[in-house]
Fold this sequence. Notes:
With 308 residues, this protein is α+β, with helices and mostly antiparallel strands. The strands form four sheets. The chain has a five-stranded antiparallel β-sheet with strand order 2-1-8-7-3, with helices on one face. It is 24% helix and 25% strand. The site of 4'-deoxy-4'-aminopyridoxal-5'-phosphate has 13 residues, from helix 4.
Amino acid sequence: xxxxxxxxxxxxxxxxxxxxxxxxxxxxxxxxxxxxxxxxxxxxxxxxxxxxxxxxxxxxxxxxxxxxxxxxxxxxxxxxxxxxxxxxxxxxxxxxxxxxxxxxxxxxxxxxxxxxxxxxxxxxxxxxxxxxxxxxxxxxxxxxxxxxxxxxxxxxxxxxxxxxxxxxxxxxxxxxxxxxxxxxxxxxxxxxxxxxxxxxxxxxxxxxxxxxxxxxxxxxxxxxxxxxxxxxxxxxxxxxxxxxxxxxxxxxxxxxxxxxxxxxxxxxxxxxxxxxxxxxxxxxxxxxxxxxxxxxxxxxxxxxxxxx
Length: 308
Ligand code: PMP
């Protein structure tokens, strides 16, 4: 194997920095009980340049990693501080000084919960955050998936288990086959749940509305933070409540939010155009505020940043 994983020459595996192409796992490994996290480090002051990096919401991501491990019966054989140091080392080993995506992956070797393996791959990414409309020249058409979101009595949507992403991958395949940009799940009751890798928020009559955790969603770090800052800092009322498919069709704006998808505006759902602007006014405001928070430009939210 000669191509380094996503261009990152080094990763961290079971206690040491190694070349990514040497991070090999046996083809005989059962991986169905593996878990992961998706974390981002952004450049300070200007997310789309290069410079000093801060990991965004490290603590909440790593807390969720521990919860996901517990749900799958695994005990992580490192402290949270050790994983932070490992992450810093990995980013430095690669010499990155632009936005970095960090994806700790954990699985029980041979399916044995006591034999926990940990790898931390990292790679750089282009952010959708920033200012102005130039980022949103392309429309983003979504569909309601014919696949329902996994119910929490079948798989744990609140944990970040890879098995859950088979559900997401099927919905994405369907969306690609039908030429949409992505899919929105309904939960097993028929209420709006989330995207394939992000939470969903909609705007109706000046209020931001998002489904509750009981709608089979991942407990999103981004969603939690946005619910707080949209209400407290932007002064926009927020409701956490069940949303019907029809309410979503009739929304003024809708966007996906999450570490990976950042703030991704939605143009239409099932070919029904939402509202009159793309992206919507509030979506843009949220996206720009999020840009400022991750870049460390909002003093009172700098506590969410952990320096690399
Ligand atoms: N839902 C799903 C299914 C996801 O994969 C993600 C990405 N982790 C999210 C929501 C958003 O979660 P977070 O804000 O913690 O990244």
